[in-house]
Amino acid sequence: MIDNVELSDRFYATVILVSRLVRNFWNKEAFKFTSGVKLDKNGYIDLATVKKLKNQKVILSGLNISKSDLEYFLCSLLIIINFFEENKKTIPGLAGTNYKFEKDKESEICFQAEQISFNAIVKFLNTLKEGLSFLAILLDDNEAATAKTFESIMAFMSLQSQADLSCLTFGEFLTSNNPYVSKLVKEILCSVINKSIASGLR
């Protein structure tokens, strides 16, 4: 049975490498509140604090990750993904049917398990790359510009959607299959487009 196969050290080393890369941000909340926004005793946003804001349409001030850190994680992911792509012919789990292994039932099952596992890792890495690349859209070249750009994008989103975003960790935002998380991502994308359109009309 494939489920009972002990995978190679190569696969577990890859898992450790990736986990060490993402552990720095994975469980952190992806978005941070604007200074002054507070929660009430029940964990809901205190609307009284929102009314004191200069821009009452925006309660999020940015990502809980710097541009330099985001670029570092993205570059690291690209290096790993490119390594797998360039060396897939020599890595049993990525070589597909071209890889030669001993033609016995046990070897075949081990090879299939390795393939399934490495394909899952590669799919995960590409999902992360796409997610982090999407978040990079929200960041600008310098901190002051980033804050202004982020605020102008969030202004097109409802306060409820912003509040819901504030509850998501990077892990949830990047890899969740939850339909509502997908809806929030689409809302951000629509807001980016609306912001670009509005900027073009000025």
How would you describe the overall organization of this protein?
It is a single chain. The protein is mainly alpha-helical. 59% of the residues lie in helices and 3% in strands. A two-stranded antiparallel sheet has the order 1-2. Helix 1 runs parallel beside helix 4 and helix 3 packs antiparallel against helix 4. The radius of gyration is 21 Å and the shape is elongated. The model has no long low-confidence stretch (mean pLDDT 85).
Features of the shown structure:
Methane Monooxygenase Hydroxylase, Chain G, domain 1, two-stranded antiparallel sheet, 3% strand, 202 residues, mainly alpha
Question: How would you briefly describe this protein structure?
Answer:
By secondary structure, this protein is mostly helical. It contains 8 helices and 2 strands; from the N terminus they run αβαβαααααα. The longest helix is centred in the middle third of the chain and has 32 residues, at 105-136.
At the first level of CATH, what is the class?
Answer: Mainly Alpha
| Total tally of structural domains | 1
Order the strands across the largest sheet as they lie in space.
Answer: 1-2
Looking at the overall shape, the CATH architecture is Up-down Bundle
Instruction: Report the total helices.
Output: 8
Low-confidence stretches: none
CATH topology name, in short, is Methane Monooxygenase Hydroxylase, Chain G, domain 1
Computed over alpha carbons, the radius of gyration is 21 Å
Shape annotation: elongated
- The SS-based structural class is mainly alpha
Query: Helices and strands, in N-to-C order?
Result: HEHEHHHHHH
